[in-house]
């Protein structure tokens, strides 16, 4: 377990002339964790989040960042706010400047970067969120999802260690929400600690490492999502709903089907559960191959040529850069979210799939497939695109 | 209510990539020449050229452009009518002694003066439209910073610019909500709804101000607003075009001299 980055010790806060918003909360967050803060409206989620970067000072109790008590003088707050990036719920409230470039450059400029450094960080941040070419656009002309991305880029440009998102998916369409969640995953994979507050149980359940259920300014439950969301009583108290997969799992258990192993987090887990239940690992004896293509290295012409030889190939893209590349190459994407799991599902059906991704995420594909292999005993072949001769693939494409 | 804003047109216009200073020079130069001119003809000439540039080069929709003129022309007509009636002269066509010491009259001089003012308004208006339809505010900010406008003024301008759109969105939403519940069905309702709209807009802007400070604080605001991107270089053909336009207009101003309508 990595070290603790943020800790709260019995913090309390009362709004001026208002009710007590936070009533004695203690918790800790480790580095590189993905935390979902869930609870009904008025549970104190936003207030709590605002304490993470010192926007609100608790009346009593102690906040620690990196094992140091948070100090509230201007200089210390600046350092804290550089390290804890905060993305507000409403991007309109966060975007200050008249153009995307200026807004993203706002943080770095105030941190005293040189002009060239500002330019580089802005370019990098915009690239990260997939908004290249939007530099001169005024924010009011962007769509909801683009505004959100611009706001995230503005925070990323300051290179924080921890990112705090207040309702990151509110007001976005389902595909936009998935894109944002995937971006959060990508950021987490690069070593950033991520905390979100949300009402969306379905989104938080498979995503989070740990979930914190809040109610009435207190923590109701704090645990891994399977446990935190797995208690119908606390879920009901927190005005939430059970994640569908968990509910299904529970209903199956109630009906006397003994489902072993851990509770399902994803459709893939659920399939595994059901297949074990019926002692049937599918009627498939030959599994499909997952090809992983690193878009930074792959030759575009070769990839296009190969794609024309394949039939029944499902294509998924992971990461902003991979998606942009796919769009550029006019590749029709079947999956853009939860890509690895969906490709494993395809492989279990004996179908081949291709994952377009970037350097840092390639390893994750192998890790996930290995983990699945250990759990289920099914070995799904994964091969990198770069090393494989075209003929082998066209053959396997035909066989499916 | 505000379906298409001038700013949105400017962001997409055909002359977007032309150097900001060139466009400003053409627009401001045109206004200056309209003011310098002593005849009714040069402003019309300038208006015709600039209108051509707006419609053909900047590819602005003709109807949108025409609509922009409705309000100023109304205003121009009213003031010109006043000028024509009040200005005296030697060659009187029509006269009405309203009061013992005050009479309304239409004279040769007054008609000439009226036509002159009217043409000037048209000329100035088209120059202003040229600037606002081809140069987005964001580009003007860059030019202003390069012209050493104090940072505090410019930062304020940029924040106001950004906030206008947020406030406008908010106002439109409230307005729609009011219309949907028949807020503007009668005279009485209209006044009440409009008053509450203003109140809500005030509160919204107050809130937005608070949020703005919070958002800036959260991103380590230290009194510095981001630097602006660089502007495009002056290219040969646009540069020459502007020069020719200004030279041509200046020539017309000189040649036309004191030419009058009749």
Structure description:
- The complex is a heterodimer of chains A (400) and B (262).
- In chain A, β9 (210-215) and β10 form a beta hairpin.
- Chain A starts with a strand and ends with a helix.
- Chain A folds into 3 domains: 4-241, P-loop containing nucleotide triphosphate hydrolases (Rossmann fold, 3-Layer(aba) Sandwich), CATH 3.40.50; 245-277, no CATH class; 290-399, Cobalt-precorrin-4 Transmethylase, domain 1, CATH 3.40.1010.
- Chain A has 17 helices and 14 strands.
- In chain A, α4 (100-110) packs parallel to α6 (144-156).
- Chain A has 400 residues and is α/β, with parallel strands linked by helices.
- In chain A, the strands form 3 sheets. Chain A has a 6-stranded mixed β-sheet with strand order 6-7-8-3-9-10, sandwiched between helices. A 4-stranded antiparallel β-sheet of chain A has the order 2-1-4-5, covered by helices on one side. In chain A, strands 12-13-11-14 form a 4-stranded parallel β-sheet.
- Helix content of chain A is 43%, strand content 20%.
- Chain A is globular and about 65 Å long.
- Chain A has helices at 45-52, 74-83, 91-94, 100-110, 115-129, 144-156, 174-189, 201-207, 225-228, 232-237, 244-254, 267-277, 300-309, 320-328, 339-348, 359-376, 390-399; strands at residues 4-14, 20-30, 34-38, 60-65, 68-69, 84-87, 162-166, 193-198, 210-215, 218-223, 290-294, 314-317, 353-357, 382-384.
- Chain B is 71% helix and 5% strand.
- Chain B is mostly helical.
- In chain B, a hairpin with a 2-residue loop joins β1 and β2 (102-107).
- Chain B contains 9 helices and 2 strands, in the order ααααββααααα.
- The longest helix of chain B has 32 residues, at 187-218.
- In chain B, α3 runs parallel beside α5 (108-134), α4 packs antiparallel against α5 and α7 (151-180) packs across α8 (187-218).
- Chain B has 2 domains: 6-135 and 232-256, no CATH class; 149-218.
- The interface between A and B is large, with 39 and 33 residues.
